[in-house]
Amino acid sequence: MEAVELKTVHDLLLHSEERVELIGGDIVRRPMTRFAHARVQSKTDRTLGPFADDTSPRGWWILTDVSVAYEPHECPSHDLAGWRRERLPKPLDGVIDLPPDWVCEIVSPGHEKKDRITIPLLLQRHRVPWFWLIWPEQRTLIAHALEDGGYRVVARLTATDRKPVRVPPFEAMALDLAGILEG
């Protein structure tokens, strides 16, 4: 039996393609972004803008399509990720190797296993406090909080109700979930 050589972050950085990520030691192509996915991603980013505009230690850095090097063989690209400015006072040069405080994955058809299982397990290992999953097609958001080393669902919301909602860790602002998830 031949030993499998796991790719590293260094291999990822040398890769000729841009839309790739490192998952489990394999360099894999990211799925083609569909309209609904891109729309929800940009609307979520714009909606959370006030948190990113707050330059105090209570503020956030919120980034889209950002790669995070968690381990030598794990460097996924998150749809959205955020760091509290108290933990990351200024932007980093190069690869980000500090786990975020919040990650949001927008579930892509055909990539549900990665978004629902692989990424959450990686985030749990690195104690990322907040994790959201958004399904554009079902117009649903599920927010998770890290408790006792595992994720617990703290909000399961659908956009059918037009009332503003408060979703951790951004509960300081009522979010228009229907507006974020409409096509």
Describe what this molecule looks like in 3D:
- With about 180 residues, the protein is of the alpha+beta class.
- It has one domain (about 35-180): Alpha-Beta Complex (tt1808, chain A), CATH 3.90.1570.10.
- Helix content is about 25%, strand content about 30%.
- The protein is built from five helices and eight strands.
- The chain has helices at about 10-15, 35-45, 50-55, 110-125, 175-180; strands spanning about 20-25, 25-30, 60-65, 75-85, 100-105, 130-135, 140-145, 150-160.
- The strands form two sheets. Strands 3-4-5-6-7-8 form a six-stranded mixed sheet, sandwiched between helices. A two-stranded antiparallel sheet has the order 1-2.
- This is Putative restriction endonuclease domain-containing protein.
CATH topology: tt1808, chain A
Helix content bin: 10-25%
The number of strands is: 8
CATH architecture: Alpha-Beta Complex
Count of domains: 1
Tell me the quaternary state: single chain
Biggest β-sheet description: 6 strands, mixed
CATH H-level superfamily title: tt1808, chain A
> What would you call the shape?
globular
Mean pLDDT level: 92
| Percentage of β-strand residues | 25-35%
Distance between the termini: 50 Å
Structural class: alpha+beta
Helix and strand pattern: HEEHHEEEHEEEH
Based on CA atoms alone, the radius of gyration comes out at: 16 Å
Number of helices: 5
Q: Regarding CATH, which class?
A: Alpha Beta
Strand neighbour order, sheet with most strands = 3-4-5-6-7-8
Model regions low in confidence, pLDDT < 50 over at least 5 residues: none
Domain Putative restriction endonuclease: 10-163
Pfam family, one: Uma2
Protein name: Putative restriction endonuclease domain-containing protein
InterPro entries: Nuclease_put_TT1808 (IPR012296), Restrct_endonuc-II-like (IPR011335), Uma2 (IPR008538)
